[in-house]
Design brief:
The protein is about 25% helix and about 25% strand. It has a single domain (about 5-190), classed as NagB/RpiA/CoA transferase-like (Rossmann fold, 3-Layer(aba) Sandwich). It has helices at about 5-20, 25-40, 40-45, 65-70, 145, and strands at about 50, 75-80, 85-95, 100, 105-110, 115, 120-125, 130, 135, 155-160, 165, 180-185, 190. With about 190 residues, it is of the alpha/beta class.
Amino acid sequence: MSMYESRKKDIRKMILSQRNKISLKERQKKSGVILKRLIQTSYFLKAFTMMIYVSFSSEVMTEKLINYALRKEKKIAVPTVDLAGHQLILSEIKHYEELVPSTYGIKEPKQLRIINPDQVELFILPGLAFDEQGTRLGYGGGYFDRLLSTKNTSQNLIGIAYELQIQKELPCTHHDISVNKVITEKKVRTFNI
């Protein structure tokens, strides 16, 4: 393991441990503030087709966001893990209730309605950490990095996280994804990527 990878692993472990200590009540409260900030962004208001990750464990909660976007008649795609291809497939959902626990315990659609990533105008991404330059650190599987490796300039990426997940600077390589915005319960950070 390179020094680089070792540093990433240490950061992941530290952030995950801190994030897991946030109580459910606090996570609900902070997620609510993040959701309010997110739905006021021009990216969200203008996008018709968007990908929203389905939260699990101690991540920023997205169930209310998904339901809100569906009520606003947005076309919602959620990521589904294709283990054999070691990649994410995007599938449209019409109701949150279509989701059932699947790979890694994360909820996924019972029935696939494939959406091509090119059609997505806005990606709302999870991350273990983000830095002050917009760099995203994921869980280490590289799923979102691969999904977004062919992203075009008209597609926007918003990372949502708790403020404690923000680092001054993260170790990054050329294939790590950077986001246009990171929204926490404290502030909205916008980057030129």
